[in-house]
Amino acid sequence: MRICVLGGDGYCGWATALHLSNRGHQVAIVDNFLRRQWDHEIGAQTLTPIRPLADRLRVWRELTGRTIESFVGDVTDYEFLASTIEEFRPDTVVHFAEQRAAPYSMIDRKHAVFTQVNNVVGTLNLLFAIQELVPDCHLVKLGTMGEYGTPNIDIEEGYIRIQHNGRADVLPFPKQPGSFYHLSKVHDSHNIMFACKIWGLRATDLNQGVVYGTVTDEVAMDEALINRFDYDSIFGTVLNRFCTQAASGHPLTVYGKGGQTRGFLDIRDTVRCIEIACQNPAARGECRVFNQFTEQFSVLDLANMVKTAAGDMGLPVMIQHQPTPRVEAEEHYYNAKHAKLIDLGLRPHYLSDSLLDSLMNIAIRYQDRIDMSVFQPQVEWRKSRNQTRAASSAAAASVSEDALLTRGDH
Amino acid sequence: MRICVLGGDGYCGWATALHLSNRGHQVAIVDNFLRRQWDHEIGAQTLTPIRPLADRLRVWRELTGRTIESFVGDVTDYEFLASTIEEFRPDTVVHFAEQRAAPYSMIDRKHAVFTQVNNVVGTLNLLFAIQELVPDCHLVKLGTMGEYGTPNIDIEEGYIRIQHNGRADVLPFPKQPGSFYHLSKVHDSHNIMFACKIWGLRATDLNQGVVYGTVTDEVAMDEALINRFDYDSIFGTVLNRFCTQAASGHPLTVYGKGGQTRGFLDIRDTVRCIEIACQNPAARGECRVFNQFTEQFSVLDLANMVKTAAGDMGLPVMIQHQPTPRVEAEEHYYNAKHAKLIDLGLRPHYLSDSLLDSLMNIAIRYQDRIDMSVFQPQVEWRKSRNQTRAASSAAAASVSEDALLTRGDH
Q1: What is the ipTM of this complex?
Q2: Does the model's pTM come out above 0.90?
Q3: Do B172 and A172 touch (CB under 8 A)?
Q4: Cβ B183–A165 below 8 Å, yes or no?
Q5: CA angle, residues B58, B64, B67, in degrees to nearest 5
Q6: Which chain B residue lies closest to A326 (C-alpha atoms)?
Q7: Alpha helices, H only, A225-298
Q8: Across the beta sheet with B295-298, what order do the strands follow?
Q9: Cα–Cα distances in Å, from B233 out to A44, A255, B12, B101, B118?
Q10: pLDDT digit string, tens, across residues A255-311
Q11: Is A365 on the interface with B (CB under 8 A)?
């Protein structure tokens, strides 16, 4: 199968591209390296020393004999995107090419507007490119469990049957996203559903939970293939932060009571879920939604698990509660369905088994690179203008603003 | 009360600005005249000969002694919008300043992207401007009944109580919008709801039905104040098309079976609904949704009403069915609630009473200006590239594309 991975130089995208290539698919990566640029903007970097894409692909070819093509450009530039799709002619497009950090979208107006324009226009462009050039192509789009928010009822997979005043219908599950980023994914979902309806496109919208882990079978083949491990307060995820905090003797910083419950999955399951979605395409006209996670945890659950694991390794760890910078319920009902990928063959990896290997060991191995100053949150939801670390340098801020302004213009 | 009317040179905006001014409010109009530019782009014009805004405002001042300020610029330009809000310091902002035609948004990729970027960025900018400059200001935002689509259950006003697996919650009503334009309004609604939650803004989202009529008390004062009457297939509404068709001896063109049922209201009720919303602001942190229409009709109902009214005036009329250019159900359940504005004091005008005065008589009075070539639909939902009339001139098309490309860049 010919598969385009948009955003294939990023965290999930890189692991996915390698996995699909290893399974014998013809893979192309499309990326503009914006994710690497954001590291410079916010003054943080991945704990793991990742290599430039060209190096990564060269090593992959040398190790496996498999070639992954790369197309360098921006999906909000329609001419670029259309020429890429026309040249590669994918059977499936896996779309990770979005700004994916809630705190980044909440920095200020420019970052909110950038996130929504970048994500919505990229996805609109992709829908038009598929319709005009490869209408039978299957779109596998990454959404997020965060689209649903935390309703007081069970969360279904995309659609819910509602009985009301003696009538019934199956309707899109109501969305209550919690950041301008999560909102952008809700906008995408509505746009994709509509394009499937009017043009008969086929799409799978994967509402993914929080992904953890660094090591997949392919990444483990060589140090040069190592994946990102983000632990800063803007792009990092909570588990990565806890593990680097434990590895550096810093207390684990839990926002509020820590009752915030979310769906999580191992990156080894991310790549497998994508493969399953590709192998089982949606029908023409179908916009299918899968909830892509394997386990639910509260933030306090995670802190306790990391504390125990670190203790077993001889690392004493404290848990420190601090006010949440977000506007979110600190305690709430949460029960999200996630049966469809299991039904299609997913065999989950569980956090209890991978916590040491893929998280604590990585954090310890690269502990010299830990920058403790990036642990503290810099972005508060209740403020419409936040100062990020890098913005303290006026020159850096002005560069990043100019970069933002030239985006989404295509 | 100090009220900013964004989009105050457009159809609903103009009637609203005059009405609020007449009621003694301090009114400012903010507009960039894009609506007038689109007439040139698509090669159509309002049936009624509207005057430039400066003329309109001068006549209004001479007739009533009341001054409406005007600020000329684009709400997607944050510097302009913020300086306007800062200078005028509104108590209420009424936001009509969006691209509001479904067919326009469905012309091709550029028009879809433009519509969503223009509408979403304008509204995001406004939310940030209110939060940063006038956080107590009440946002009155025009949404559309088209956000809901045509579900097989009763449509509630913005939110619905859902019982599911033994639990219950009140959640945003699921949306199934039917064009890239309607989608943009759904995106706005989600963004507004979130801003109210995190910043404690106050907002009223008015999901308006199809507005008909030209004459309000204020517009009727002088020919120079006359409002738009759009009957072309892109910006025109179905009632206006039927009335101009009847006035020019053209058959009434009903798309498909004509069972498409929607909510409708007289423009005299639009201006009154806006006034009611302004006078009864939402609470801090509240995102209130009102369904703003007074009667439901199917397209075939409307055709028959126009046929009868025209017959009474001695105009014989035929009804002609033709394939719908949209992707929509031609027969469906439709029962939308609309109690909240009535509860706050709205006394509806009914179509049966205004059909002759405000629609047929206007169509006949300006029948020399009717261009029958704009009746036929030019935009098909199932095609991702449509040729509009004006695009047949390469030069005109290239100008309009350049104009589009420079939008949403601020």
Answers
A1: 0.95
A2: yes
A3: no
A4: no
A5: 50
A6: B198
A7: 238-247, 267-279
A8: B210-212, B261-266, B295-298
A9: 53, 54, 18, 10, 22
A10: 999 999 999 999 999 999 999 999 999 999 999 999 999 999 999 999 999 999 999
A11: no
